[in-house]
Amino acid sequence: QAQLVESGGGLVQAGGSLRVSCAGSGRIFSSHAMAWFRQAPGKEREFVAAAWRSSGITLYADSVKGRFTISRDDAKNMVYLQMNNLKPEDTGVYLCAATGSALTGWAADYAYWGQGTQVTVSS
């Protein structure tokens, strides 16, 4: 059974930067798309970014394009999300997810999930 563990969340001022990380176990990284979602209190889970295996192909939500960068190191079973120019609306629990299907922004397509790491952006 694959396990995903996020780390690196915290409190940052608007305009600042933060990098969250996801460590995976099991043989999922090389054959799966990896993604980040986020969920704010009272809101639905929202797609942030995804990366397809080691191809370099990525997908981003419009709200984070140009500010966030997803990257993965399959040799280390790690996926990262570098977040720059953070805004208060980026606040939420950031969750790492993996899917064996095509690169997608739909949460229902992802079979494996971490517990999440809290990111809070103050204004």
What does this molecule look like?
The structure is a single chain. This protein is mainly beta and 123 residues long. The chain has strands at residues 3-7, 10-13, 18-25, 33-39, 46-52, 57-60, 68-73, 78-83, 92-99, 112-113, 117-122. Strands 2, 4, 5, 6, 9, 10 and 11 form a 7-stranded mixed beta sheet that branches. A 4-stranded antiparallel beta sheet has the order 1-3-8-7, with no helix packed on it.
Number of helices: 0
Strand content: over 45%
Determine Rg (CA atoms, Å).
13 Å
Record field, number of beta strands: 11
Q: Into which percent range does the helicity of residues fall?
A: under 10%
Topology:
Elements: E1 3-7, E2 10-13, E3 18-25, E4 33-39, E5 46-52, E6 57-60, E7 68-73, E8 78-83, E9 92-99, E10 112-113, E11 117-122
Give a nutshell description of this structure:
The protein has 123 residues and is mainly beta.
Relevant terms:
seven-stranded mixed sheet, globular, mainly beta, four-stranded antiparallel sheet
